[in-house]
Amino acid sequence: MTKVLYPGSFDPLHNGHLDIIEVAATHFDEVVVATVRNPQKTGGLFELDERQAMIGESVAHLGNVSVTSFSSLTVDLARELGCDFIVKGLRVVADFESELMMARMNKAVSGLDTLFIPAGATNSFLASNLLREIAKFGGDVSHMVPEPVAKRLAEKYGS
Description:
By secondary structure, the chain is an alpha/beta fold. Helices cover 44% and strands 18% of the residues.
């Protein structure tokens, strides 16, 4: 049985993230989606518990996906959960450069490999920070995020 960890800030989860989760769920026995508050990213919108709830609702149709949050090293969580691999999504070349560096660092400190899944062409431009900004100024992002996320963005911004 192969278990993978898909970590990220997911603030908020968007259809590109959901694509990666759905692909991983078809290739692995168990997928754990783990949300973290990334100290390198500013301007967080949703608290960890809110993100975890939105992700849980968005992946409810996938029986082999669970959701958690964490505040430790990704590799420590992966070991704690008994994961065989870390999964990361790639949108553009710039993602590959930063994710490859992180994958090599994770391998060096833990021996754990990272597998990359490319984003589907229709969602390769999505970025949580851009979605937050569009939603903040009243733009419609409902077609770019799962329904539970669209609902919470509308509640957050009163649109």
